[in-house]
Amino acid sequence: MITTIDRQALEELYCRFNRRSSVHPDPLEFLYHYEEPEDMEVAGLVASSLAYGRVKQILRSVSEVLSRMESPRRFVAETSAREMTRMFEGFKHRFATGEEVAALLFGAGRLIERHGSLENAFAARMSNQDETTVSALSAFAEELREASGLDSHLLPCPSAGSACKRLHLYLRWMVRSDAVDPGCWRKIPAARLVVPLDTHMHSICGRLGLTDRRQADITTALEITEGFRRFAPQDPVRYDFALTRLGIREDEDPGHFLEKYGVREVS
C-alpha cells in the first residue's frame, strides 16, 4: 500500500486540533497550572513520566503527585529524599511506585542543583553537530538515572533502542511554543526534536506512508521524524499533537482523516 500526504492536509489538521480546547484529556494540561518555567519543567517531567496506561488513570496519578507540591521547583530543592519517600508512600501508577516517583523528583532536584535548571542540564549535553536530540537525551537520562538511583521504566534510554516516547514528549512540551505546547525552554532548537512514538502514532504514520518499519523503536521514530521534516524543516514534531487526537478522541479516526483531508491511499 502506498499512501500520499501533503503539507496542506497536515496543516488543516493542525489548525483544527492545535488549540487549548483540544488538550483535555492529556497530561499536558497540568503544565498550564504553572507560570514559572522552573515549576513547569519539573511538573512536565512528572506528567510525561507517568503518561502511559489509560488516560483517566494517568490524569488521576499526575494530579495526585503534583497536588502534594505547591511549587514543584521549590519542592525538589527543599525536600529531603527521606521526606519525599514518606510523602509518596502508598502511591501506585501501574508499574510505578511512590518510592520511584520520589527518587525521580530527588534526582531532578540534584540536576537542578548542579546545573541551575533541567533545561541547563539538557543543553549542556547538546552539541552544535547534533542533528537530533537523541544523543543529548541519552546523556540526560543517564545523568538523571545516576542522580536518582533509578534503573526502571520511568527513565528509558534511547541508546538502548527504545523510542522513549515519554521523554520525547517531555521535550516537545518544553521546547515547542504554540497554542498547545508551552515551550518554557529556549536553548534547544525545535528543529532537532524527535516524534514521540508509541503504538498508536506508529500505526497512524504507517498508514500515512511515513514508515514501513514494524517496530516502534528509536530507528522508526527517527525515520518518521525525517518524513515530517519534509513538511516542517524547523519544526518536525509540529503535527504530533494534532495527529494523536485521532487516536484519543472518540469521535475521530485516522481513516476519517484519510478521507476528509485529501490523503490519497492507493493499494
Order of helices and strands: EHHHHHEEHHHHHHHHE
Task: Please state the overall shape, judged from the principal axes of the Cα atoms.
Answer: globular
Total count of domains: 1
Sketch the major β-sheet.
2 strands, antiparallel
State the share of residues found in helices, binned by percent. Answer: 40-55%
The total of beta strands comes to 4
The chain-level mean pLDDT equals 92
Structural class by SSE content: mainly alpha
Span between termini = 4 Å
Q: Return Rg in Å.
A: 18 Å
Low-confidence stretches: none
Would you mind describing this structure in some detail?
The chain has one domain. It is 51% helix and 4% strand. The chain has helices at residues 7-17, 37-49, 55-66, 72-78, 81-87, 98-115, 118-123, 134-148, 165-175, 199-207, 218-229, 240-248, 254-260, and strands at residues 2-4, 92-93, 96-97, 264-266. Strands 1-4 form a two-stranded antiparallel ribbon. A two-stranded antiparallel sheet has the order 2-3. Strand 2 (92-93) and strand 3 form a beta hairpin. Helix 1 crosses helix 12, helix 2 runs antiparallel to helix 9 and helix 6 (98-115) packs across helix 8. It is globular, with a radius of gyration of 18 Å. The N and C termini lie close together (4 Å). The mean pLDDT is 92.
Quick structural gist:
This protein has helices at residues 7-17, 37-49, 55-66, 72-78, 81-87, 98-115, 118-123, 134-148, 165-175, 199-207, 218-229, 240-248, 254-260, and strands at 2-4, 92-93, 96-97, 264-266. With 267 residues, the protein is mostly helical.
